[in-house]
TrEMBL record:
Gene3D superfamilies listed in its UniProt record: Glycogen Phosphorylase B
Protein name: Uncharacterized protein
Matches recorded under InterPro entries: Glyco_trans_1 (IPR001296), Trehalose_Metab_GTase (IPR052078), TreT_GT1 (IPR049438)
Keyword field contains Transferase: yes
Entry-linked PANTHER family: SYNTHASE (CCG-9), PUTATIVE (AFU_ORTHOLOGUE AFUA_3G12100)-RELATED (PTHR47779:SF1)
Keyword field: Carbohydrate metabolism, Glucose metabolism, Glycosyltransferase, Transferase
GO function terms (MF aspect): glycosyltransferase activity
Name of one Pfam family that matches: Glycos_transf_1
GO biological process assignments: glucose metabolic process
Recorded family membership: Belongs to the glycosyltransferase group 1 family. Glycosyltransferase 4 subfamily.
The organism of origin for this protein: Kwoniella shandongensis
Organism domain of life: Eukaryota
UniProt subunit comment: Homodimer.
Length: 735
């Protein structure tokens, strides 16, 4: 393809769907030209090529030339010049999206990026691509870089190589997410395609966080790095479910501050995942069918599976970290192996589920027998962490182990929570309807509004209650004095699957069985049930536009999807299961109903529709939008301003706590690491540790041990330990 071809900015085609396109960019900054008699900076020629790739190959390209004026400029001047160049490149990308009617899903930048454009303060090119343009930014070194003794490839060749390499990392089921790559040698998760994806920088995390929390986070990071602390997390899967989402976000942030953390996952086996889901998870939550119980053969398979994963992947360094964290029961059999190989290791067990302690404490129950099998592994850890619900901790844990409580978290900058502008809303609505019509034949009429529940297809998520509530709500509308001509809002039920969750398929089919019964004739054409591909973006975008969100779990650990709805300013109706009530401020950002009470849900929906109940959260004066405060308008205003700072996660009194977000969660973990290792403060600034850091660390009790069970019968919320005197009213509660 000739490098002199030009991009066709207009198209006369009339496709029925928005076309996905992927962009490659390569740059070359040429030498400063010889000085002329004039003292004016003549500028250096910056050549950059933009290529368009449709998933099968490059279809168009154009090489551009612009001037880079850097001579005699200080760092601020160079930053402004780099910003000007980045906006010029962004303008090309936006013209492709707006004028050609294509949706740019990925922008791959070829290394080497000129040093003069790299890492300038105030220049946030990659985060702008992700947060404002909704394209995945990918930085890669073309394979031709090995030829150091040959002429450098053209910018067109490098741009083509970059985008061709990057598209291979897109998930095969969706163009809006990359694969969760795993190192084949030790099975550590290569977060963000091993650092090639650049969704955000530390600047956006700082902007979204309060000063009080940020100074604690940085002080802890400096102290742990000064002491060369290393951490290994072990959990069941690299993708699917809340634990994986948290780990991706936390490792992304920790890498930005140089903290040494790795996250390992096992090679899965269907027999074992059936055991861990149906005979561990569901049994402990009290939602398994009668007669389901762990047997001796199950125990043998489970333990052999763990041993073989250790021998194959983790026996050569994975457990050599300062602290090892085990997430949930799936890898509890690894604990005695660690104790044998690393008797000095500090081990934390983190429980993320609702353990029915009334059942695990009763010797006559299957829960008692199941938990005591697992506790034989767990009893050897140094700390037990649970969601902030005392009921979730069995009696033998409280008697024998230190217990602390902390909430899970979600990330303000990932696909679930970032704002989506008009172009992305249009794209994902079209994509959703395509999925919905393929899977269940239902098309959402976006003008009618919709109720939305985002959750895994799990027996504890209250989906039967949601269907019953929606049916009753629609019956109330029909019986009202003025029934809506369009029949009122529709219902969306959407969730991901997970490789360790065999329940998903039969729950998904069970929903369709219910909807196709005669009882549901009134609504079955208005309920879209969609098993989404592993793209957080479609979940986040559809949730953003909901009239009302629901989360009606009957059993629940915490379910941070509630916080995600609140963050988007979407009113939520949620059950009182587990830690859900800690996230809802009644009448301010949503309503709590008794778990399993579908009529209560229907009544709240009807009252909202009739205007008897409403949640109105005022925007700050800076963000007034001509009277528009709906979530989509708020998002569009932010996305359209490329210089707008990231939105604070605790932007007003109706927002949820910073405790439930990545920086808060990371700070909690770091404080526990610091205290569990018994790291001391010498009282003076040292290395990266400033005098202010020393004071902040002392205020969090760094240098003091984590209390044992004899001193800490009930345990406390770690968030209280982190924030101390800066704790806001109503935070760090236990229920």
């Amino acid at each position: 393809m000739s490098p002199h071809r030009r991009l066709s900015h207009h198209s006369n085609r009339s496709p029925t769907q928005i076309q996905d396109i992927f962009i490659g960019v390569a740059m070359q900054l040429h030498s400063q030209p010889p000085k002329l008699k004039t003292t004016q900076d003549e500028g250096r020629d910056l050549e950059y090529t933009v290529v368009l790739h449709d998933g099968t190959g490059v279809v168009e390209s154009e090489t551009f030339h612009t001037k880079f004026y850097g001579e005699g400029k200080d760092e601020d001047g160079l930053a402004e010049e780099a910003k000007r160049i980045s906006r010029e490149v962004l303008a090309v990308q936006r013209s492709i999206q707006t004028e050609k009617g294509m949706n740019v899903r990925l922008v791959a930048i070829a290394e080497p990026i000129p040093e003069e454009l790299r890492g300038k303060r105030g220049v946030e090119f990659f985060p702008t691509l992700w947060l404002h343009v909704d394209a995945v930014p990918f930085v890669t070194t073309p394979s031709t870089s090995i030829f150091t003794k040959l002429p450098a490839p053209s910018t067109q060749a490098s741009a083509t190589a970059a985008v061709s390499a990057a598209v291979k990392h897109l998930h095969p089921a969706t163009h809006s997410a990359t694969t969760a790559d795993i190192d084949p040698t030790d099975h550590h998760v290569q977060v963000d395609c091993d650092g090639q994806v650049k969704l955000c920088s530390i600047v956006q995390y700082r902007e979204s966080t309060s000063d009080a929390l940020w100074k604690r986070f940085m002080a802890l990071a400096n102290h742990l790095n000064e002491n060369k602390v290393s951490i290994s997390f072990f959990s069941a899967t690299p993708q699917g479910g809340g634990v994986a989402l948290m780990r991706h976000a936390m490792l992304r942030l920790w890498k930005m501050v140089g903290f040494d953390v790795k996250w390992y996952v096992p090679e899965g086996h269907p027999t074992v995942f059936d055991i861990t889901k149906s005979k561990f998870h569901n049994v402990l939550q009290g939602v398994s069918p009668k007669g389901v119980e762990l047997n001796d053969e199950d125990k043998t398979w489970f333990e052999l599976w763990t041993e073989q994963n250790y021998e194959t992947f983790w026996s050569n360094g994975a457990i050599d970290a300062s602290i090892i964290v085990i997430d949930d029961p799936q890898l509890t059999a690894l604990i005695p192996i660690i104790r044998k190989k690393r008797p000095d290791a500090k081990i934390i067990f983190r429980s993320h589920i609702q353990i029915q302690s009334d059942l695990t404490d009763d010797p006559s129950t299957v829960q008692y027998r199941t938990w005591n099998y697992l506790f034989d592994f767990v009893k050897d850890v140094d700390l037990f962490l649970a969601h902030p619900v005392k009921f979730f901790v069995p009696k033998n844990v409280k008697e024998k182990l230190p217990v602390l409580y902390m909430a899970p978290s979600t990330d303000p900058l990932d696909g679930l929570n970032k704002p989506y502008g008009r172009a992305s809303v249009r794209y994902f609505r079209q994509y959703f309807n395509s999925l919905s019509q393929q899977q269940c034949g239902v098309k959402i009429d976006w003008d009618r509004g919709y109720i939305c529940q985002i959750a895994r297809f799990d027996p504890s998520k209250g989906i039967d209650d949601l269907l019953a509530a929606y049916l009753e709500f629609r019956q109330k509308l029909e019986a009202s004095d003025s029934p809506p001509l369009d029949n009122g809002p529709q219902l969306i039920i959407m969730g991901h699957g997970s490789v360790d969750d065999p329940d998903g398929a039969w729950i998904y089919e069970k929903i369709h069985d219910t909807l196709n019964s005669k009882e549901y004739d009134l609504v079955k054409g208005d309920v879209a049930v969609v098993r989404a591909p592993p793209s957080d973006s479609i979940l986040g975008c559809i949730l953003q536009g909901a009239w009302v969100a629901t989360q009606l779990s009957t059993r629940e650990g915490f379910e941070v999807k509630v916080t995600e709805a609140v963050n988007k300013r979407v009113p939520i109706i949620a059950s009182d299961a587990g830690g859900i009530p800690l996230q809802v401020k009644e009448g301010k950002n949503g309503w709590i109903v008794p778990a399993g009470d579908s009529s209560a849900v229907a009544s709240v929906l009807f009252d909202i529709y009739e205007g008897k109940k409403q949640v109105h959260r005022d925007l700050s004066k800076k963000r007034e939008l001509d009277g528009k405060s709906d979530p989509n308008s708020v998002a569009q205003a932010w996305v359209g301003d490329l210089d707008e700072a990231a939105i604070k996660v605790h932007a007003d009194e109706s927002a949820t706590s910073e405790d439930f977000w990545t920086v808060g969660n990371s700070a909690r973990w770091m404080l526990l690491f610091d205290k569990l290792l018994g790291l001391q403060l010498d009282g003076a600034a040292k290395g990266e540790i400033t005098t202010e850091d020393v004071g902040v660390l002392k205020s969090m009790g760094v240098g003091e041990p984590v209390a044992g069970p004899e001193k800490n019968d009930e345990g406390i919320n770690v968030w209280k330990m982190v924030m101390g005197d800066d704790l806001l009213d109503g935070e760090a509660e236990l229920i």
